[in-house]
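ok trying this again, last paste got cut off
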Amino acid sequence: MTAGTSRPAGTGAARAGSADAPDVERRALVALGRVVEPPAPALVPLVDALGAVEVLERLRADRLEGPTSRQVSAYRARLDLADVDRDLAMAARAGARLVVPGDREWPPALHDLRAGRPLALWVRGAAGTGLAAAVEHAVAVVGARAATAYGLHVAATLSAQVAARGWTVVSGGAFGIDAAAHRGALSVGGTTVAVLACGVDVAYPRAHEPLLSRVAQDGVLVSEVPPGTGVTRGRFLERNRLLAALSRGTVVVEAALRSGARSTAERARELCREVMAVPGPVTSPLSAGCHEEVRARQAALVTDGDDVLDIVGQLGVDSRPERRAPPGPLDVLDPEDLRVYDAMPLHGAVPAGQLARASLLPVPDVLGRLGRMAVQGLVEATDRGWRRAVPTARRHG
C-alpha cells in the first residue's frame, strides 16, 4: 500500500474516545510524533503497511527496515523523548485532539502529499464539524510578514469576501498577511484555519495569542508537531506543504522575490493546486514576487474574492460575473445620434444646419435627434444654436 493511500477506518490513531481507531494505534502514533521530525517519508509507507504499533516495536527492537541506518539511529536516539501520557494530557488541557489517516476528521486532500503527508495531526477547534469539513472548500491566503498597509487591506478584504461565500480561509498564523487573512475571515463570521509550525498549545508569535485563541474558538488550529513544541526555520518551511495541501488554491498577496509565501505557491503547484497572486505597485519590493509569479505564467492574477472563487470554485456556482464599466450617458445614443453629437465643437454653439452638413443628415432629422438628446440632458439650445450640455461636456468632452 502506498503512502498516499487511505487505509480502512480503524487502523490509525484518533482522538481519545472516538470510534475511528484503536487506542493502541493512536498511542503509537503519538510516540512516533516525538521520535521523528516531520516530514517522515521513510516512515509513512511503513506505518501505512504495518501500522504504527508494529513500526514502533521494530524501532525499539532495532530491526526496522526501510529507513537508512542513519535515520534509524536518529529515531532511536529520540525514543526517550516519547511520553504518550504527557502529550495526551497536554493536548487535553489545550482542548486539542489527535487526528490520523482513516479518521472521519482526516482531510482526504492530505493524501496528495503521499509519503510526505503527516503521520498525524493535532487539532484544536471546530469540534462540531471537524477538520475535514472545515477544509472541504478552502483557500490559502499567504504573504509577507512585514506587509504594507496595502497588502494588509487586500488580504483582509479578499479573505472576508471568500469567507462570506462559505469558503474557509487557511493561513499560517504569522504576522502580516497571515494575520490579516485570519482576521478578515473572522470579521464576517467565516471559518479560518491556522496551520502552525509549533504545537497547537503554543502561541507563536506571542503577540498573536488573542488571535489564535479566537481562531481556536471559531475555526481550527492545526499542527503536525506535538503539544509544547516550539518553532524552527525548518518547521516553517515544512508547514507550507500542509497549507498548500489543505486548500483548493493558494493566493499570494504580497511576497518578495525570495519568500516563504512563494515556497507555499511552489508546493501548491507540485500538488496541482491553483496558484494566484495579487498585483501591487511595480515599485514595491514586497510585490516583486507576485509580479514574477504572474509574469512567468505560474500564477493567475486576482484582485478580490470573486476572482479567487472564479478560479477554484464550481463552474456555474462560484463563477464571477462579467465585469463591465458602468454605462455612460452617450451609451444610449445610436450611431447617427453620435454623429450629430460629435459634430458639435467642444465649446460654443452651432446652428442645426451646420450640424446637418457635418453629420450628412437632413436638417429635420438632425432637429429631431437634437430634441431627444436635449431631453436626455446631453445638449441644449441657445440663441446661437446648439451646444453640448455643460456638465456632460466636462465629463465626456
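PB: full thing came through this time. The first strand starts at residue 96 and ends at 99.
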